[in-house]
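User: I'm writing a short report section on ligand binding and want a predicted complex to refer to. Could you take this sequence and iron/sulfur cluster and write out the structure as tokens? A short remark afterwards would be nice.
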Amino acid sequence: MSPSSASPLVTCATCRACCCQLEVILMGDDSVPRHLTHEDEWGGEVMRRLDDGWCVALDRDTMLCTIYERRPDVCREYEMGGLACIEERAHLDRPPAQPLRGPL
Ligand code: SF4
Ligand code: SF4
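Assistant: Sure. The structure tokens for the complex follow:
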């Protein structure tokens, strides 16, 4: 299937911001407010994520980016309807992860 024939159902409005749970590595030109970032274990600067797994900059009520005009390059280049997007959206159809259980 060519990109131009991608399903019209692939829109961010039909997605729970799946891609905003991914690691977002910041690049040199990014100007994200520092309090929304942190240093990963390799010394790189990344978007901070909260305990629910989503990026700290995501509005949990609207599921929209609160720093859209200043969002990192990685987010700008993430193609809606692209392979990575389709892969992440596949998680929508999966049941939520079950909590790990210890021995009974
Ligand atoms: S995974 Fe795709 S459809 Fe969902 S929010 Fe990201 S770009 Fe939009
Ligand atoms: S900066 Fe915005 S677009 Fe990028 S992951 Fe965070 S909420 Fe999503």
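A remark for your report: Residues 1-5 have pLDDT under 50 and may be disordered. The longest strand covers residues 37-39.
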